[in-house]
Amino acid sequence: MTFSAGFLTVIIYGALIWCALTGLGLATLLIRDLKNGEIW
Amino acid sequence: MNESAAILPPVVGWILLAAFSALWIGLGIYWGRRNKSFEDHALAGRNIGLALGSATAAATWITSNTTMLAPQFALELGVWGMLAYTTASVGLFLFAPMAVRIRKLMPTGYTSGDFFRLRYGRAAWAIFMVYTLFYSLTWLVSMAMAGGILLNALSGIPYAWGMTVILAVCVIYTMRGGLGAVIGTDFIQSLIIIVGVVIVGFAVLSHVSVDQIHENLQATRPALLNVLFPAAIMAIFNNLLFGLGEVFHNNVWWSRAFAFRDGVGGKAFALGGLIWFPIPIAAGFIALASGALNVPVPAADMVGPLVVADVLGEFGAIAIFIVVFCSLASSLDSLLAATSDLLTEDVYRKLMNPGAPPETLKKMAQYVTLALGLFTWLVCLPRIGTLASVLFFAGPLVGSMIWPIVTGLYWRRASTVGAVGGMLLGAGVGLVCYFAIGWYVATLIATAVSMVWVLACAHFSKARFDWAQLSEAA
């Protein structure tokens, strides 16, 4: 039994899109904390 | 590796090294001006917000291992290798509720050593200190050594110079800026790593499709696609438990639980886990593409940079250099800060000078950071290649500490006999199995033996711990 090409596509593109979204999320969190004066 | 075999010209490597070194040291000095006491220096004033908290949890866990070893795992253990690596994020997810509990039980605590001493007494604390210092110093040495080796392989910068510069930069900004500088630079480093991994990943996919990668693997190395790859499945358990043991015990993570603002710890560690989770796949799949792209791979641990440099040329090599440099710095600085705080708080303050004023403690922490840097530099200088593998040896040690910590935080009946016996028996049996069977079962067995002992002792224990004793760390 082997991993299919479809499964490989889902995990690779999924991981890359997930990374991109977390990068955006981090930047958004920083801006929110900056606005609220809650950085540190 | 000589200069001609490197994927970047040395001059480009030196320019990148100088630019990022100046940036990290400048930020360390700037942020260090806020620190007036040991608490400011060691715990950033206990006021870190969610954005910096989440980023530092992820960035500290993204070591050069994540960006370099994940492709190697994929090349040797296939799809399961990448998936096995992602299980290290479970440590961050499970530490999220523990961070809330730690902050609640020890609102004025400083280190994980404080917990062991107050919860289980001096004997358990001494064993913990031996295990954690062995692990932390080994990790520190292996990171600094990896820094020199990787900078040499990527740009031809001589090993001794690359290792010295990256270590010196981290020591300087950690000494000057303390945990605040470490966490601040972690945020920038985590964003650089994430953006770098995404750009490189999509760029590689623009040269070769996933279908082509799959077709090539099926034709040339079908084992890498095997759903029932035994060695890879064993690696899942080893990685998972090693990750749990590391995160649960090490002061790198406890110091952050103390440093995050009230109410932030749980969310920050959970978000950190979510940020870290896809990185091994996003960085690791590149190795699987090496066959379809016809990239020769003379050394498995360099497969990631070799594929990226082959596909994307100098731009890709620069991107990899920056990602690796940030990965190394984000882990080295955290280890330096956390180990220095552990030695300052648990050894200097608690054993040698209990009445030391905050300013003296801050200075002592800075000297200890410098001493740790010098020690690491001296050990790394001869470039003993096998030293990094000692880190695997620490697996049973960290695995044996999982149950004493978890039960000690949540069960009043968890006892000193259970904790001391669990750590000694677990590590002992685990190390015997390490040599008799192999590294891939050592952590699993150490954790299991420790679990049985700790749970049995808790079951028969008549003692009931008073949680208020933990707040005495003030």
TrEMBL record, chain B:
Membrane topology of the entry: Multi-pass membrane protein
Cellular location(s): Membrane
Chief localization: membrane
Keywords in alphabetical order: Ion transport, Membrane, Sodium, Sodium transport, Symport, Transmembrane, Transmembrane helix, Transport
Transmembrane segments: 12-31, 43-62, 82-102, 123-151, 157-175, 187-208, 228-248, 269-295, 315-343, 364-384, 390-410, 417-437, 443-461
Similarity field: Belongs to the sodium:solute symporter (SSF) (TC 2.A.21) family.
Protein name per the record: Urea transporter
Pfam families: SSF
PANTHER family for this protein: PTHR46154, UREA ACTIVE TRANSPORTER
Organism per entry: Novosphingobium indicum
Gene3D superfamilies: Sodium/glucose cotransporter
Superkingdom assignment: Bacteria
Lineage of the organism: Bacteria, Pseudomonadati, Pseudomonadota, Alphaproteobacteria, Sphingomonadales
